[in-house]
Structures are given as C-alpha cells and as structure tokens.
Write a structure and sequence with these properties.
Number of helices of chain B: 14
Structural class of chain A: alpha/beta
Number of domains of chain B: 1
Structural class of chain B: mainly alpha
Number of strands of chain A: 8
Distance between the termini of chain B: 26 Å
CATH architecture of chain B: Orthogonal Bundle
CATH topology of the largest domain in chain A: Rossmann fold
Number of domains of chain A: 2
CATH class of chain B: Mainly Alpha
Shape of chain B: globular
Oligomer: heterodimer
Largest interface: A-B, 33 and 24 residues
Largest sheet of chain A: 6 strands, mixed
Order of helices and strands of chain A: EEEHEHHHEHEHEEH
CATH architecture of the largest domain in chain A: 3-Layer(aba) Sandwich
Strand content of chain B: under 5%
Number of strands of chain B: 2
Largest sheet of chain B: 2 strands, antiparallel
Number of helices of chain A: 7
Strand order of the largest sheet of chain A: 4-5-6-3-7-8
CATH superfamily of chain B: ABC transporter involved in vitamin B12 uptake, BtuC
Strand content of chain A: 15-25%
Radius of gyration of chain A: 17 Å
Distance between the termini of chain A: 32 Å
Radius of gyration of chain B: 19 Å
Helix content of chain B: over 70%
Order of helices and strands of chain B: HEEHHHHHHHHHHHHH
Helix content of chain A: 25-40%
C-alpha cells in the first residue's frame, strides 16, 4: 500500500501537483498516464519520498526506478542488480539471481551494462528493483526506448508481479499498453488527477487528456505474442 | 588482490629505505631515522590519502576525471604554507610551514562545506570546489606578487611543486593523524558510493543519505589531502590515476576500489619518490626532480593508455 493525501507540490515556484489524493494497494498495477509536464513523474517522486517535506518510505519496502535510469562505471549486470540489496545490507545471491531470471537478463549477468543494448540495460535496471524484493514498485517509464516485443514482455512481467500481490505504480506514455496491462489507469492532467478508472474504462478520459479522439481503427497493427 | 597490493607496498617501503640520493644500500641508523624513514612514511601516507580520495570523489561525483585537487583544498593548504613562509614564521620555527598548511587546509575545508550548502549534490560540491580553488589561487598569486625578496619567491615555488625531501618525523607527526582520520572516514563510504552509481535519486531511495555521504567525502578528502599537501606540497595525478589503474584488477564497483586505492596510491608515491632519488644515476641533473612533476609525467601517458584500452563508457 502506498498513498499520498491532499498533496500540493511546487517546484521552482511553479505548482506541479495540486491537491492530489492517490493510493495503490497490493495486487494492483496502476498506470499513470497523461501529457508531458502533467506531473506524473513528480507524483511518482512524491510517492518515493524524494521531494522535500514528504516522508521517505522504508527502502526495503519500496523500490523506485527513475526515468531514463542509468548506472555509472560500466558495472556488470549482476553487480547492478546486486545494488538492489543495499537496503537490506546483505549480499544475498538468491534474490539477485531470481531477479535477473524474472527480468530475462540472467544470460547477460557478467556483461557490462554499458556494453549491452538499451533494452537489455533497462531490464538490468528493473532487475535491480526486483532484487530488493519490495512490496511496492515505483517505475518511471520502464518501457521507454524498448522495442515493442520487449515492452510487452516487461509489462507482462509487471502484471504477473502485481497479480502475485505486489503494488506497482508505473508511469507510461503508451496509453494503449497501459490499458492492455494495468488494473487501473490514473490520468494526470495539469497537476491534478483528471480520472482514476479501471483500465478497460479509461480510454475516453485518457484521450481527452491528450486532446485525441477515440475511435476504432481496423488497419493491421502489431499485437503481443499469443 | 588487496592483500597482494599490501605486500607490494611493504616491499616497496623496504626498498625505499635502502635507496639514497644516488646511492643504494643499507644506510646507517641516523640516515635511516632522520631521512629515509620520515620520507618513506610520508610518501605512503600522502599517496594513500590521494589515491583513496581520488577513488571516493570519482565514485561520489560519478566522474572518471575527478581528482582530489578539484575541491581546492590542495590550494588552500599551499596558501597557508606560503603565508607562514611569507611572514618569516617558518624561518624561526620550521614546523610553522606544515602547520600553516594544515590551517589553510582546515579553512579551505570549512569554506568548501559552507559553499556546498546544507544538502550538497554532486554539482554543488564541484561548484564549491571551483570557488575554493579560485580563491586559493588568487590569494596565492597575491602572496607571490608581494613576496619580500626573490629568494623567498624561489623557495615558495619549489615548495609548491611538491616534494618529500628533508622531511622529518615532526612532519610525519603533524600530518599522520589528520590523514589517518580522513582515510578512516573515506573507507566507510563504500555502500554509499555503490548506491550513487545509480544516481542521487536512486541512491536516496535505496536508503543512502546522499548529502551526508557527499559531505563526508568532502570532509575526509579535506583531511587526507589537505594534511598531505601541508607537508608535501601539491602532488598531482596520483588521485586521478590510481582508481583507473585499479579498476581492471579490483572491479568497477566504486566501493570495491577503496582499500586498494589507498594501498595503490601509497605504493605509487613511494615508487615515484624512489625514482626521484635514483634520477641522478640516470640523468645529468644536479637539482632533485620534484616528485609532483614525476607523478604527472608518468601518470598522464598511463591514464591515456588505460582509458584507450577500456574504451568508451558511461559516464
């Protein structure tokens, strides 16, 4: 369970979030959607306790993956994932190995993270969050710059993780992916929560936040693997 | 691997006791105690502080080109020593020179921490270091311009180039406590530096107090490097090059480098100082080569070769 009550947050003299109430509970995959600059990342950072005056959650309980997360120094994939054990102050190998397996990156364990593709590096960063074995995952655009198949694979992993009882809050630009995989879609617009709906009912609200129409398009398109 | 580095350092330390200016052999007790031992001890202490601070700062700032000199403490230590020189304090009371350096380093460290603010981040720490460096070099230039006579100017310049000649056990006694305290602070930063390789936000959410880690890195560096500069002048390049030398051997995780970087820095400076003493065998020179000149001359090509071999990387 992770929540924010009546939060208003200003950054550099500009109000980024206004009076936001948000909560996500175990077994839920919640997608935050909305236009650029709507406040999705700020909302996620607020949940992670990264903004001044907000409580910082227990790092063993909540894992946060920033937007465009990178790792310096060209550590190996296994070393990067093992950083997820820092909150536990242990060097346990089993959770790291199972995180690497879950994220499909185990075969590249000994490869340097700056010598693999962007998609593989993204999986390694995600494995770092999994290695913490948190109750709550806060993930900012974990599928950005992934190819469509890899994006489907990551979201399927997240959905399965949520279904297994974890709480996952994920910022996603790809609205259709959010609707396909999330339990709930929260539409953020101009610093407010414009809609908070079950995923299968969220399309009209999301479309209006982006200023787009909703329609049926019968042209051929990419579908996830059966 | 760290154990082997410790053995290497011990062997070099013993060798350094046997090498004089243009002479190799077992020295008599007076030379051993008054000259070789202080000089070798200082080389190990100063080099260890430089190597360790370099590894910590590169990790803390996620910057492979970070060097302890970046924080400006070397400059303020030099300034303090020059002031002691300038007012003639050191002519009447020789320990005034390193003591002035220590005082300068402390003032520099205090300024650095004030400039970096209550919650420093990497960029604010670098900015604070640039400001302290600028102030130190401006005041140093002023002190040199006002130097009472040309001989003082020459003495100051030689001192600033860095060296370990004619240092006594008094120098060791003055510099060792702050260097060792600084190194003890720095050696404990391993987990924080590991977390920082993911960036400051991710490190904070892993439960690492980022600002506290950066402040300790700055304070530890100020102690270790400031006290070193106070007794040995500005010795460049050791802090920059040692972490790069060790990454292929110890792994690339910042925390894994720390004890090795202290040993490696100590070994490197002991070797450089031995080469300074052996130089008269090989080169037609009469004045000793400042050890800081040697470390930079040897270090720069090494650094280029290592980084070429390592190829491009993030960051």
């Amino acid at each position: 369970m992770i929540a924010l009550r009546r939060a208003s947050i200003g950054l550099g003299g500009r109000t980024v979030l206004r009076d936001v109430d948000f909560a996500a509970g175990p077994g839920e995959l919640v997608a935050l959607c909305g236009p650029n600059g709507a406040g999705k990342t700020t909302l996620l950072r607020a949940l992670a306790g990264l903004l001044a005056d907000l409580p910082r959650p227990d790092p063993r309980r909540v894992a946060y993956l920033p937007q465009g997360a990178r790792c310096a120094w060209g550590l190996t994939v296994r070393e990067v994932a093992a950083l997820g054990r820092i909150p536990h102050r242990d060097a346990a190998v089993a959770p790291v190995t199972s995180a690497l397996t879950a994220c499909g990156i185990l075969p590249l364990s000994e490869a340097r993270i700056d010598r693999i593709s962007g998609g593989e590096a993204r999986r390694a960063m995600l494995a770092r969050a999994f290695a913490t074995e948190p109750e709550v995952f806060l993930l900012d655009e974990p599928t950005a710059d992934l190819d469509p198949a890899a994006a489907h694979a990551i979201l399927r992993l997240l959905r399965a993780t949520a279904d297994a009882g974890r709480t996952i809050v994920v910022v996603l630009h790809a609205v259709e992916m959010a609707i396909a995989y999330a339990h709930r879609v929260v539409v953020v617009q101009a610093g407010r929560i414009a809609a908070d709906l079950p995923a299968d009912q969220a399309l009209p609200a999301a479309a209006s936040a982006f200023g787009l129409r909703v329609g049926v398009d019968l042209s051929p398109r990419l579908l996830p693997p059966a | 691997m760290t154990g082997r580095l410790a053995l290497l350092l011990a062997a070099l330390f013993a060798a350094s006791l046997l090498i004089g200016d243009g002479f190799v052999g077992v020295p008599d007790a007076l030379i051993l105690w008054q000259l070789r031992l202080p000089r070798t001890l200082l080389a190990a202490l100063v080099g260890g502080g430089l190597g360790l601070s370099g590894a910590v700062l590169q990790g803390a700032l996620r910057n492979p080109l970070a060097d302890p000199g970046l924080l400006g403490i070397t400059g303020t230590a030099g300034l303090g020593a020059v002031i002691a020189f300038y007012w003639g304090l050191s002519q009447h009371f020789p320990p005034a020179l390193p003591a002035g350096g220590l005082l300068g380093a402390s003032v520099g460290a205090a300024l650095l921490l004030v400039f970096a603010g209550r919650a420093p981040s990497g960029p604010s720490l670098i900015l604070a270091g640039v400001a302290v460096s600028a102030i130190a070099s401006a005041l140093l230039a002023l002190a040199l311009a006002l130097a009472p006579n040309p001989f003082a100017l020459a003495d100051i310049t030689v001192w600033l180039m860095g060296g370990l000649m004619d240092r006594t056990l008094t120098h060791v006694a003055l510099a060792a406590p702050p260097i060792l305290v600084g190194m003890a602070l720095l050696l404990r930063l391993g987990p924080g530096l590991d977390a920082l390789s993911l960036g400051e936000d991710a490190a904070a959410t892993l439960g690492m107090p980022v600002a506290h880690t950066l402040r300790l890195a700055a304070a530890g560096t100020a102690l270790a490097v400031g006290a070193g500069a106070a007794v040995a002048g500005a010795i460049g390049f050791v802090g920059l090059v040692v972490p790069h030398l060790l990454r292929p051997l110890l792994g690339r995780r910042p925390g894994a480098l720390l004890p090795g970087a202290a040993l490696g820095g100590a070994a490197l400076l002991v070797v450089a100082d031995m080469l300074v003493r052996l130089a008269p065998f090989a080169l037609p020179i009469s004045a000793p080569v400042p050890v800081g000149v040697l470390t930079a001359l040897l270090g720069a090509p090494f650094l280029v070769v290592i980084l070429r071999k390592a190829g491009p990387w993030d960051p």
